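Dissemination and training. As part of the outreach component of the grant, students in the summer workshop were shown how a complex can be specified as a set of sequence lines and then modelled as a single object. The example used during the hands-on session is reproduced here so that future cohorts can follow it. Participants entered these lines:
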Amino acid sequence: MRTLHVDFESEIPVYRQIADEIRGLVARGELADGSELPSVRQLASRVGVNLNTIAKAYRLLADEGLVELRHGSGARVRIGADPYREPADDIERRLHDVLSRLVLTGSSRRQVERLLERAVDRFFSGPAPVRRGS
Amino acid sequence: MRTLHVDFESEIPVYRQIADEIRGLVARGELADGSELPSVRQLASRVGVNLNTIAKAYRLLADEGLVELRHGSGARVRIGADPYREPADDIERRLHDVLSRLVLTGSSRRQVERLLERAVDRFFSGPAPVRRGS
Amino acid sequence: MRTLHVDFESEIPVYRQIADEIRGLVARGELADGSELPSVRQLASRVGVNLNTIAKAYRLLADEGLVELRHGSGARVRIGADPYREPADDIERRLHDVLSRLVLTGSSRRQVERLLERAVDRFFSGPAPVRRGS
Amino acid sequence: MRTLHVDFESEIPVYRQIADEIRGLVARGELADGSELPSVRQLASRVGVNLNTIAKAYRLLADEGLVELRHGSGARVRIGADPYREPADDIERRLHDVLSRLVLTGSSRRQVERLLERAVDRFFSGPAPVRRGS
DNA sequence: GTGGTCTAGACCACG
DNA sequence: GTGGTCTAGACCACC
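and obtained this result:
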């Protein structure tokens, strides 16, 4: 699996950053359905955090139904058929917040649009983002 | 000032939601430079939260240089000239995360693009978003 | 809140026993909707386990939607309207297993029936078991 | 021996599910005293699990005094006269927990009673459940 | 005060 | 080997 980037200064909890990164890799298709994830211990030493932190990230993903934990035999990606549930309000809110901050930094509408386009481009420029439900 | 929408179920802290909303109002131009903000007490009772929560939101905005706190209990918008500081990494990260979640919900690239367009539209459809720095 | 009984010898994890007991109290109506739960620290010292163990139990119940955790202001029972989801297979399996063990202990069908009746009686003999969905 | 049903998604360990199933077959009389159990290898390949998993299930049953292990790889049912030992607390706890969950799903007392009756019926509707001790 | 995060490390359960 | 549980204790975020 690719390297994970964790920012220890960020206010976003480490275990969540890790879950977010893995979720991102799956969404972008870099981690296919059925892929084995590194063991909790391996990833912990690689990222430089405690065992439990990784375990918590894995458990979060397992609760979301994106990862399957099998006692004694690792963790693997599992892209189920059931729609991925997420409170849409929070996404809405976060997006709106991002826009506010960009504008207050001095970005014009044009610049904001470009920035978003670039972000989308970067996101979809990987191997082949997962397509599901669709 | 317009009504603030706070979602007590959200995982985003209340004081932050409030700060975010006010920042948004400023960014969209609904709160002009120099506008008086409601007093801590007023806003607290209006939103239905503790005094400290509002005070914390105001303090956050003051730290960002967007609001000026005055002794007593006055606060007013103050859009300075100095560039608005914000850890860009977190925005980047949140944006990427939003994209991942949308894709995993089953949204295609096309749908994601539309959703972002609509959000930008909605954001810039107010009175007249602030222009500064630029 | 009533005393919780935890069996440290049991193979069922402590944090789960605690969650099970609280769930039981809610189901039997001894903890009404909106009741405040003891703080993590209080309950931890009362039961004689670590903070994190209680926190984990609370989080489990929160994930089930039975408890509402509010940062900085405690935890309270929250009986939502949405049906409580539980994989029926496991219940089925556990029930069948209980029956097998009872029979192998030498219980006749008659005795098993009585035992179950008594268990149901005891369960429903409290104040007034919660009724929802129904 | 009849087919064993194992649910790999279940949180109940595989080795235990297997032991539970065999115990159930014995309790219901489908496996008589003295019957040969399949060899560890056979059963492992049939169920699709590791050798150790079956071995562990057999060992568990042997510890309970329900199965006799013989050198080589034979195992057979052995219903002794000695009372079947089982920590009653756990059964009690599990039963109570099942009741709580059913009630929180919205089942009324009446419905719970019916569900239990049906489970007992199904259990005792086999060839001829073992009678012992009693 | 509250709950949340993270650590370091021990021990258990599973395959 | 794997993941799961639990501890003891520190520090942060929230109200």
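The CA atoms of residues 83 and 133 of chain C lie 7 Å apart. Students were then asked to discuss how this feature might be tested experimentally.
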